[in-house]
Give the backbone structure.
Amino acid sequence: MNAAESRLATEKKKGFVFPYRLEWDASRKESPWWMTIVSIVLALVFCGIFIWANGMNPLTVYGKMLNGAFGTQFGITETLVKAIPLLLCGLGVAVAYRISIWNIGRKGSSPLGQWRQLRLRSIFRICRLTLLYRP
């Protein structure tokens, strides 16, 4: 019996069971804290192998990447300009995943939002023309 089942059994004994529960780990598979660090290190090593296979030093390439992204004020602002839309789309997908709702993703929602904005703009343009028309 895992922790969630034992908690549910305890609440049933008390006589009240709340049907919905907010949990940090929706899949109920807790991963250790070091798994993130190991994943990042393995990704850097794996990419480093391909960089080395192309005849370059991976440490030099990673240093130039960090310097280009965070070395100057221009680099920081451009990094933020590229990262913020991706972070917001990731947040939208994460929220949709948490509440088990289907999400069309960034490639689908961006054109859909642009189309909707265009329709609203054309409707307001028609309304503005009819308000300005005086016979």
About this structure: The chain is about 75% helix and 0% strand.
